[in-house]
Amino acid sequence: MALAAVTSVAFVPTAAAAGPAGDRPARPGGGVDLSRTDGRATPASIGGVADRGRAGGAPDMAGAIAEQRGISRAAAEKLISVENANVRLANRLTTELGASSGGAYLSDGNLVVTVTDAAAAAKVTAAGAKARLVARGERQLQGIQRALEAAASEPDTTWGVDPQTNQVVVSLPASGAKNAVQRSAARRFGSAVRFETSTGRIQPNVGISSGDAMGGCSVGFTATDFTFNYIITAGHCTQGFPHWTLPNGQDVGPTLESHYPENDFGLIWMNGPSVWATGTINLWNNTSRSIHGWATAVSGLSVCNSGRTTGFRCGSVLKTNVTVNGAGGTVRQMIETNICTLGGDSGGPLFATNTGYGLNSHANRNGSQCNSSPRTWHQPVGEAITTYQVVIYGAP
């Protein structure tokens, strides 16, 4: 799903402008049941369909994962099913274990939860997952991450916790003048820190096109508070752009809120109570996918991204809770994947089967080309949903 900003509207420093006086809804409010769905029949996509950019021509997630991993379609379907169950178990266990958790990851679909004591290991085993004892809890690693973020650094630097190695991973540009400062700050943490070399410029995935001051973005998820309907997309897309249309000129509605940098999500009100409320995402290959809810991503999870430029592509979650110091500012708690995305993909959905995980934010691209080792960072969609007190508009 692609959106274009209305350039006839004056540029404003914030996204506070809306529709005619009295028409703008109040901030969504009230507790909502995340499992609720409306059930109305609605169109499959917004803004047309383009058959391009899909992973190896695979029309769906199972086909794309099978091609990427060199496995049969049946094996890919089984992997996706196992991962879908285990990611929710991981969310529950890491929350329940608290300080005893070192984080969780998926290995060939199997859930591994790292823990710092035998009592926590017993709880993990009893729940049906594999427990692995580690030296450092996730909270300790996150404290190290924050300490390193406080030291002087270059653009194109990232920090994140790798639960598989029980380390903080710092990715630095090869020739950064402040790299020595980062390495010096890390010395006191010893083997708890690992350094990698980043490649490419980390940039927001906004597209640039003639006559469009902001460039193009993609729709993430449609959402509702059961009175009004909304679009959730990247905050760097909505920031400063008060109104939106489709490429064919159809009106969508006004920006209500933007959060960027630090976070990267924004809210667009769809004019009227039921206009274009779809509960589906466009895969850009003449198909769409219904989204029924959201979850917190886990390292190793198979995921797909959908965007107006690269279309439908799949890959894996590499890390979560990653801080990204990119050209557009610093964003935190990002999901890092190995999916190639480009300008124009910003705001597009990160998902697996019928579950939403994130919004396309930044990528280490070389201009209009994918990096040889692609990395994309996605804003967790759960934070936007919680902030705006809405639910993903999911069809049953």
TrEMBL record:
Database matches in Pfam families: Pro_Al_protease (PF02983), Trypsin (PF00089)
CDD domains: alphaLP-like
Transmembrane segments annotated in the record for this chain: none
Signal peptide span: 1-17
Residue span of region Disordered: 17-57
Residue span, Peptidase S1A alpha-lytic prodomain domain: 138-186
Domain of life: Bacteria
Keywords: Disulfide bond, Hydrolase, Protease, Serine protease, Signal, Zymogen
SUPFAM superfamilies found in the cross-reference section: Trypsin-like serine proteases
Family note: Belongs to the peptidase S1 family.
Name by which UniProt lists this protein: S1 family peptidase
